[in-house]
Amino acid sequence: MTRPLPSDGQGRPAGTQPLASRRERVKLARKWAYLVSSTTYLPLSHDQIERELLGLLDRLLEAVAGDRPATEIAAEVGAELVRLHCVGKTSLQCTVDLLAAALLAPTDPRSADRLPERVARLLGALASGYVEAIRSATVEQRGTSDQALLNAVRESQREWRACEAQLDEIFLGSPSGIAVTEPDGHLVRTNPALQRILDRTPSEVADGNLFDFVHEADRRLLLDGYRDLRDGKLDRLRSRPRFVTKDGDPLQATLTASLLRGSHGYVTIVSDDAELTLLQNQLRHQLLHDMLTGLPNRQFFSTHLEHVLHLPNPATLYHVDLDGLSLVTDGLGRKVGDSLLRIAADRLRSVVAGENAMVARFESDKFGILIENSASTPDVVTMIERINETLSEPAYIDGKGLALTASFGVVEDLPRTAEPAELLCSADLAMRRAKRKGPGRWERYDPVWDGRAREAIGLVATMPGAWENGELGIGYEPLVRLADGEIVGAEARLRWDHPELGLLPSERYLELAERTALIGALGAWLVERGCTDMAAGGGADMPLLVPLTPNQLADPRLAGTIRGILDGAAPGPGRLWLGLPAGALLEAGHEIVDNARVLADLGIGVVLHDFGVTPGELTLLEDLPVHTVRLDSRLVWHSVDEDSLVLAGARNLIALVRQAGITVLAGDLETSAQARWWRRAGVELGTGPLFTGEEGPVTDIGSLIGGGRAGPLQGR
Is 3.40.640.10 the CATH classification of the domain at 289-445? Predict the structure, then answer.
C-alpha cells in the first residue's frame, strides 16, 4: 500500500518543491504511463496504469525524501514494474530518464548537495529490482516449460507404447495375412493368419521368401509389381496372385503391398478369397432365386428369356397363376400355404423335367415357365393338361389333403424383336383374361385384345392427371316419363374428353378405375357437381340420378360425404337418387348394406341398378327402402318378342315391383319400339341413347331441362 509523503506543514512532501502538489504528481504519472505504454502492450486500461504508476511515484518520493535513501523501496518499485508487464525493450530506459529528471528537480538547499547521489542510488536500486524480477520470471517460466516438455515426452512415450500394443494386437489378431519383408521378399515377420492361409507352420514360414509361396505362373508378374513399387511407379500394389498350399493346391488370394516408411522393406497384406467367393456366390444365388421355393426369380427369368430370344428354336412362354392358394393360406395359415407353394414348385419342375425349360416364381402364387420347343415338346393344350393334372393330385400337409389348379396365359412362337418385359406383360394379360373365365382355364396371347387392355390400363393410370387438367367432366342424360315423353329428371354420367382419343365411353375406364383410390373421390365429385348444376340450371325440383360403383358404395365415408354435400346444396335429399348395384348388395357384407340404409335414412332415393337377372334380388326390396329399380341392360336389349320367356318373366317381375309401390326404370333404350314395349310392360321411366341422340349426354343441364318433352319417342 502506498504511504503518504511526509509533509512540510504546507501540504508538500518534505525536501521537494516541484512534485509537492498532487496535481504535479498526477501529471508526471500520466506522462510516465504514456511513455511506458508506447514501449509495450500492458493488459490494463489507461486509467489503471496511471493509478498504479502514481502509487509507485509516491513510494519513490518517500524513499528519496528520507535521511538515508530507501533502496529497498526502489528495488520493490522496479519489481512492481515487471509485475505490471512494463518489460518492453525501452520500458526501463524511459522510466529512468523520466524519474531522474523529476527527482533531480530543485529541492531544499540544505540537502541539494546530496540529492544527485541519493537519486542515482535509488534509480540503481530500481533497475536492479527490475532486472532481478525479470530474471526470476524467466527462470520460473523456463522451469514451467521444462516440466511441460518432460510431461509431453512422458505422455508421448505412453501413447507410443499403447499404439505399439494396439498395432501388435491388430497384427496378431487380423484375419488377413500380414508379412513384413525385405526388398528381395525375405520374410522378416509374419502373423498367424498368413501361416494359416499358406497352410504352413511358423517354423516353415520363418526365414522363408514370400515369392517362394506364390504359384510359378504368377510369380514373375508379382515380382514386376514389387519392382514398380520400389521404383516409385506405384504408390500401392494390388494383385490377385495364386498361392500354393502345403499340399500343392492353388489358392486364390488378394494381395496388397506398400513400402514401409523409414526403411527399404515392404508390408504385404494377403486375404483368402475362398470365403469371399463363397459369400459372393451365395449372395448371387439369393439375388437371382426365390428364397421359399429355390426357383429362379423374375429377374433371372427375364435375363434367361432375353437369351432365348436370340436362339433359332421357337419357344413358348407360360404365365401361371395358382387358383385357390389364398383360400389355403387364409383358412389354414401361412405356414401351410408356404408348404403347398413349395410342393407346387416341385411339381411344375417335374412336369417340364424332360424339356429344355426354366420354371421361375414371380411373386405370391404366380410362376413363369419358358420352354425351348423341340420335336418332342407337347403342344400347349397337352402341357397345360399335364400341369393341372399334376397340381390337382392331393398333397398331404399336417394330415390334410390339399390340391390346386392353375390359370395360364400363353405366348407362343416368341417374336425375336420383342422385349422380355413386353412378353411377360402380354402373358400376364392373357392369364388375367383366362382367370375371369374361371379356375383352370387358359388363354393365348391376342394382340388385338392385348392392345385394347393396355390402352384401357393406360387410360386409368392417367386419370388423376386428366381430372386435374379438366379433361374429366360431367354429362347429363334425361330421365323421361314413357307415358307422355316428359323429361322429369336427369342422370349424371362421368364424361372424359380425351385430347387424343376424343370423347371416351365410360365403360372403357370405369371398371378398371374401380381398382384405384380415385374412384371414391370421383363419386363424391359427381354428386356435388350434379347437385350444383341442377340448382343453377333450374332443376332443383327434379330428381338427379347418380349411379355409384361397388367400391364407391363400400366407402365408409360415403354417408358423411353425401350429408355434407346436401347441407350445402339447393336440392333437398328427396331430389337426389343414388344408383346402387344390386349384385354388389347381394354379394357384399353388412357394411355395404348398412351404407345403403344410412343413405335411405337421409331421405335419398335408393335406385337398384342392374335389377332382374340375379336370384334373390327381390329380398333387397324387403331389406331396403328402395325407391326405384333399374332393369338390367341385358333385359332391355332383349328382342321385344311377345313369345319370349325372358320378357314374360320380366313383365311378371315388373308387376310385382310396382305392386310394392316401387318405380321401374329402363335404361339404355335405343329405339322407340323398345320404349313402347317396356311402357306397355309397366316401365314408367326411361333413359338412354334414344333420348340423347347422336351427341350423347349434354354438359348443360339447363338446356336439357328446358327441352320439356323427349321427341325421339315417336322416331326410331
Answer: no
